[in-house]
Automatic annotation (TrEMBL):
Pfam families attached to this UniProt entry: PCI (PF01399)
UniProt keyword annotations, A-Z: Signalosome
Name of the protein described by the UniProt record: COP9 signalosome complex subunit 7 isoform X2
Organism whose genome encodes this protein: Canna indica (Indian-shot)
Assigned GO CC terms: COP9 signalosome
Length: 257
């Protein structure tokens, strides 16, 4: 089963559960969601109206944890650890996996030093084990570990949830792209129209030239045929005169008196 299909089934499952429980059970469900080893998308669950029950209760921090897993990183958690509940080992692993995805969205070549700092890893062996066992085997990233250059070359990374402001930027980007595309399409259509018009003009010009060539050929042919007949008649007349001279009796000379 591919990762996208698995994600979709898990999201549907947890959405149904979150819509049917009270605040205390919502907190427990969020713990299960954020620790689940195969779930890496949370914004759809975060948008469930029933989660509003957590606001102003002792479980309100659970909502912040869910928001952290949807959009944040391990570094974000460390900066706000005083306001958030402690994470279970499975949650820590999950948040570090999500941190790798965030970095992979920004750069396709990730230096080991940057990754070790972001993930709180103390040595290269531990980092490479995490990338292989927890990221590549999980199917969320693919890439090449370059020990010589001390970097991870990203070939594929599953996308993370988009923040609301990112969605607005994406919509604006798409709108700009569509506007540019419309202008480009209009320009292409004009070019095609110009090419068609030019092609028709070239065809007409070529036809005119061919027609003139045919006229010249016909004229030359007619002229040659006419000259040929005239030469034949001329030669025939000359022969007839010669023959007539041969058969015409010659007059005898009269002797001089």
């Amino acid at each position: 089963m591919d990762i996208e299909r698995k994600q979709s089934e898990l999201i549907d499952h947890f959405v149904k559960q979150a819509n049917a429980v009270d605040a205390s059970n919502l907190a427990a469900l969020i713990l299960e969601i954020t620790a689940h080893p195969s779930l890496f998308a949370f914004s759809e669950i975060l948008s469930i109206p029933n989660l509003a029950k957590l606001k102003g209760t002792q479980y309100s921090s659970s909502l912040e944890v869910l928001r952290l897993f949807a959009y944040g990183t391990w570094s974000d958690y460390k900066r706000n650890a005083g306001f958030l509940p402690s994470l279970l080992p499975d949650q820590v692993r999950k948040l570090k996996q999500l941190s790798v995805l965030t970095l992979a969205e920004i750069e396709k070549v990730l230096p080991y030093d940057q990754l070790m700092e972001e993930l709180d890893v103390s040595n290269v062996r531990e980092l490479e084990d995490f990338l292989i066992n927890e990221c590549m085997y999980a199917g969320i990233v693919r890439g090449k570990l370059d020990q010589l250059r001390r970097c991870f070359e990203v070939q594929f990374a599953a996308g993370r949830d988009l923040r609301p402001e990112q969605l607005d930027n994406m919509i604006q980007t798409l709108s700009n792209w569509l506007g540019t595309s419309d202008s480009l399409l209009h320009l292409i259509q004009e070019k095609i129209k110009w090419a068609d018009t030019t092609s028709e003009a070239n065809k007409l010009h070529k036809k005119e030239i061919l027609d003139k060539v045919e006229e010249v050929k016909k004229s030359l042919k007619a002229d040659l045929e006419l000259r040929g007949h005239e030469e034949i008649f001329s030669e025939s007349g000359g022969m007839m005169d010669y023959e007539e001279d041969r058969v015409r009796p010659k007059r005898r000379r009269q002797p001089m008196p």
